[in-house]
User: Which sequence fits this backbone?
């Protein structure tokens, strides 16, 4: 990048060619007031706060959109510019109904801060006092148009960062408004409630119902941590006041894994599920009653030791939710497989793991989940295949990455799914195979790509080609219920693209067909560019720490234990749910033939009511533990709030039980 | 030394600015040596003498407020506005997004606790203006102390500046709109 030299306020400063005047000034610590500018978004020059004088320009120009050139002479502050900026602020205050005294954002508002900076103690112009609506239909977000300054930061964030583009400007001139879709309430629009717009909003025009009036940012402590909810591992900056979580923000919404989604940003703050506040032990009358934790641990250890002596190690089974942290899961494995010595240990999502690993290890023999690529590869893609997944719902930030690649890179998006098109606004092509013929469809697509390919075949491609020698594109696409022209078009997109990537999810995994995963891996192998050492494929795993749980080998059992509780002579079950809310309906056979059930859980549910002992788990905001993202990066959380004294970390309780049993 | 004569009024307001002024605590003793308060809501004097400084809290929402404000302006050399209502319209101006008739109907007839309500009308009471206005949209204002209410420190700062012979402009770090 060519270096350029500008004169700003009489001083020589350096910048890079392609930078704007604002970027050069910011890099040189020259403060220019801004409102519509947000680092990481395209600048549009909407607010005019950043106007600067440039030699040979007839009038002030916005620094945020003016390209810096070698030799430019810029003035950022003089009497005239300051007069204009104050004037702009006054006009903004007259345009809508800005009443700081009753605004949720007062004290955390860029418009207000600038008014203070410019000592705007009165407004000289007549107010408009427009009658404007407040949209509060969304579960978490409110749009109060009275406080909107039409900077468009929410719109650009929704479009360029989240990729959803639910928001845009509607109407014309002074009737201009931020609208969702075709001017409908946010709650009924294509908005995914990720809340990035809320964080991007410089005023109180977009705010969160669950954080409003709970504490101003300057009164809160800021703690950086990661979100362990879905396995993306988004960075979080949490605001905490008086041991209460006030707000969850991203440290940088335009940065890497920083968008956050409704689950990470809002769901926890509005969660109503009742917590397990202390240990519960079933008493003589068959009722669960609160007991001191140490006593409950004692009961569990004694009972497990007795059952082990009576029925052997394999009389006791252990099943964990993959929402639990790696620390908890390691201690769980130590208790079940180590101290108790049982072979019957599994995760609730163990079947998913077994399907994936069988599918991968079929052609590769080894490599396991490590062959998968990193999530950030999606952002570089120019052709994406989404198979049996709804990323915007299950892993919204991964969904955003896909949508962003489509909008930003003009990437082609191919959906392979018999039931739903998860990206109706983004997909280039929806291949809709008949239910049950997904693998065939993928194989036919692979074959079509091979037939189109002019590249020199690698050894792997030849291998794949050999395995597909019986496939006939025309005939087999018909059998899969796909128009062969669509299929050829998809193959054409894949062959032309430089950076293909395959993302698959629950739709693929629910069929428990490892063959489909092998086929997808084959397709990824032949369409991945030669310079990539791994096939560009990634699976969206069911729980926040699925990858962590699978990596430590908890799901290595050959069959699902929860589904075979009755057939294995299991007499006791230890269920580690942690802060995963699991209903009894997800746990078949829980009450049949078991003598003793221990459930360690944060929340009371229809499952915990069937337990003999319920041990309390903290939730992820209360402990600092390790989680592994779905693409294999181990990350540590930090505790945000303190849990009550009756609640200890899962691992601590599990270790205590282990120790007592060894006595 | 002759004392500086001050008169204060409150218009459409909650009295919070005057309360905040009283929050200057012991500084009021020092102030009392230099300042003579004439007509104020605190002294309860009703007629306007000629004063050096007129202080107004509140916005202008009816004909009486308009008249009183103009009278104060005519009787003072320097006019200072206190609080968001006087400076910007403030909370009182929230009614501006509705029709005057709608506001009166809602307030006097449709209120849940009202039975057989009646809208009071002139000459018994002053008529509402179509819109609530900040003070500077009605008369010339010389200086402002915004805030809802302004901090006692900001009020004291402004008064001390006036006593020192300067027209106060609050520094950025003293500015408050809430």
Assistant:
């Amino acid at each position: 990048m060519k270096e350029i030299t500008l004169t700003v306020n009489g001083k020589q400063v350096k910048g890079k060619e392609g930078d704007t005047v604002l970027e050069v000034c910011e890099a040189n610590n020259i403060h220019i007031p801004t409102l519509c500018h947000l680092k990481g978004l395209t600048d549009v020059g909407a607010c005019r706060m950043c106007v600067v004088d440039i030699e040979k320009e007839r009038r002030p120009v916005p620094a945020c959109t003016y390209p810096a050139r070698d030799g430019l002479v810029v003035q950022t502050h003089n009497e005239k510019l300051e007069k204009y900026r104050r004037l702009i602020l006054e006009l903004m205050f007259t345009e809508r109904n800005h009443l700081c005294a009753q605004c949720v954002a007062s004290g955390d508002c860029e418009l207000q801060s600038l008014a203070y900076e410019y000592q705007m103690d009165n407004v000289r112009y007549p107010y408009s006092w427009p009658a404007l609506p407040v949209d509060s239909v969304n579960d978490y977000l409110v749009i109060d148009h009275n406080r909107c300054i039409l900077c468009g930061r929410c719109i650009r964030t929704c479009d360029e960062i989240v990729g959803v583009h639910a928001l845009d400007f509607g109407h014309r001139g002074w009737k201009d408004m931020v609208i969702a879709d075709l001017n409908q309430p946010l709650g009924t629009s294509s908005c995914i409630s990720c809340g990035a717009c809320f964080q991007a909003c410089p005023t109180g025009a977009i705010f969160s119902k669950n954080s409003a009036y709970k504490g101003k940012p300057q009164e809160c402590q800021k703690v950086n941590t990661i979100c362990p909810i879905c396995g993306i591992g988004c960075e979080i900056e949490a605001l905490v006041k008086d041991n209460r979580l006030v707000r969850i923000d991203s440290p940088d919404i335009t940065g890497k894994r920083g968008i956050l989604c409704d689950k990470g940003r809002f769901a926890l703050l509005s969660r109503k599920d009742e917590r397990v506040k202390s240990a519960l032990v079933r008493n003589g009358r068959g009722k669960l009653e609160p007991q001191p934790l140490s006593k409950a641990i004692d009961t569990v250890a004694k009972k497990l030791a007795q059952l082990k002596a009576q029925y052997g190690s394999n009389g006791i089974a252990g099943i964990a939710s993959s929402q639990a942290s790696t620390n908890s899961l390691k201690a769980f494995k130590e208790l079940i497989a180590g101290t108790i010595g049982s072979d019957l240990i599994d995760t609730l999502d163990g079947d998913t793991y077994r399907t994936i690993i069988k599918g991968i290890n079929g052609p590769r023999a080894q490599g396991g989940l490590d062959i998968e690529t990193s999530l950030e590869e999606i952002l570089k893609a120019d052709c994406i295949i989404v198979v049996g997944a709804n990323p915007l719902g299950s892993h919204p930030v991964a969904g955003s990455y896909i949508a962003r690649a489509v909008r930003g890179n003009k990437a082609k998006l191919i959906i392979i799914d018999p039931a739903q098109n998860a990206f109706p606004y983004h997909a280039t092509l929806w291949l809709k195979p008949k239910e049950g013929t997904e693998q065939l469809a993928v194989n036919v697509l692979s074959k079509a790509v091979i037939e189109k390919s002019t590249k020199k075949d690698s050894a792997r491609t030849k291998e794949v080609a050999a395995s597909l020698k019986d496939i006939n594109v025309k005939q087999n696409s018909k059998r899969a219920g796909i128009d062969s022209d669509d299929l050829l078009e998809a193959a054409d997109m894949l062959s032309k693209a430089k950076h293909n990537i395959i993302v698959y999810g629950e739709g693929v995994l629910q069929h428990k067909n490892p063959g489909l995963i092998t086929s997808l891996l084959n397709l990824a192998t032949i369409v991945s560019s030669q310079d990539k050492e791994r096939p560009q494929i990634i699976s969206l795993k069911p729980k926040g720490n699925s990858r962590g749980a699978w990596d430590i080998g908890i799901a290595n059992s050959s069959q699902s234990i929860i589904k075979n509780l009755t057939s294995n002579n299991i007499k006791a079950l230890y269920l580690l749910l942690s802060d995963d809310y699991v209903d009894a309906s997800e746990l078949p056979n829980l009450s049949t033939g078991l003598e003793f059930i221990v459930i360690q859980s944060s929340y009371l549910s229809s499952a915990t009511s069937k337990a003999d002992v319920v041990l309390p788990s903290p939730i992820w905001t209360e402990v600092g533990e390790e989680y592994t993202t779905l693409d294999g990066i181990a990350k540590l959380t930090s505790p945000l709030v303190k849990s009550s004294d009756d609640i200890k970390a899962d691992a601590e309780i599990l270790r205590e039980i282990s120790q007592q049993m060894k006595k | 030394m002759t004392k500086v004569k001050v008169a204060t009024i409150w218009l459409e307001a909650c009295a919070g600015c005057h309360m905040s002024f009283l929050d200057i605590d012991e500084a009021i003793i020092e102030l009392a040596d230099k300042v003579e308060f004439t007509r104020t809501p605190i002294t309860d004097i009703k007629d306007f003498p000629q004063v050096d400084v007129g202080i107004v809290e509140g916005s202008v929402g009816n004909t009486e407020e308009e008249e009183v404000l103009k009278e104060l302006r005519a009787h003072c050399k320097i006019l200072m506005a206190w609080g968001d209502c006087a400076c910007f319209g403030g909370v009182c101006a929230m009614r501006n997004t509705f029709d005057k008739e709608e506001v009166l109907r809602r307030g006097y007839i449709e209120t849940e606790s009202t039975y057989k309500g009646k809208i009071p009308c002139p000459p018994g009471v002053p008529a509402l203006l179509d819109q609530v206005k900040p003070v500077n949209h009605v008369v010339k204002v010389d200086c402002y102390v915004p805030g809802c209410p302004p901090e006692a420190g900001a009020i004291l700062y402004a008064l001390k500046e006036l006593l020192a012979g300067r027209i106060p402009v609050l520094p950025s770090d003293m500015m408050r709109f809430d």
Summary: The two ends of chain B are 38 Å apart (CA to CA). The mean pLDDT of chain B is 95. Residues 4-93+130-174 of chain B form a domain with the Rossmann fold fold (CATH 3.40.50.700). Helices of chain B lie at 16-22, 27-34, 63-75, 83-88, 100-108, 152-163.
